[in-house]
Amino acid sequence: MNNNWVSILSSEDQFKIEIVTQMLKNNKIDAVIINQKDSSYNLFGFSSVYVRREHAKKSIELIQKHNE
Asked: Which of 9, 14, 34, 52 lies 20 to 30 A from 45 at CA?
């Protein structure tokens, strides 16, 4: 991943990551999930949501609004 993408959310909760990613995509923001969980057990580690740097501020605002 190049410097144009930034992490806006990391969590052990894969369901939360999927919901946030879909919410961003519904708002016309490209978002990708980077899964850093241990593939042997799928219990340890976390996943992160990445967006383009120019969409980071809007993405964070949408997440905060969604969590209210």
From this structure: 52
Strand partners, 51: 6, 31
The answer to whether residues 31 and 51 touch, using CB atoms and an 8 Å cutoff, is: yes
Q: What is the pLDDT of residues 4-52, one digit of tens each?
A: 999 999 999 989 999 999 999 999 999 999 988 766 666 678 999 999 9
What's the predicted TM-score (pTM) here?
A: 0.85
Find out whether 16 and 43 touch, Cβ atoms under 8 Å. Answer: no
The three-class DSSP label of residue 3 is coil
Place of tokens 């930034």: 6
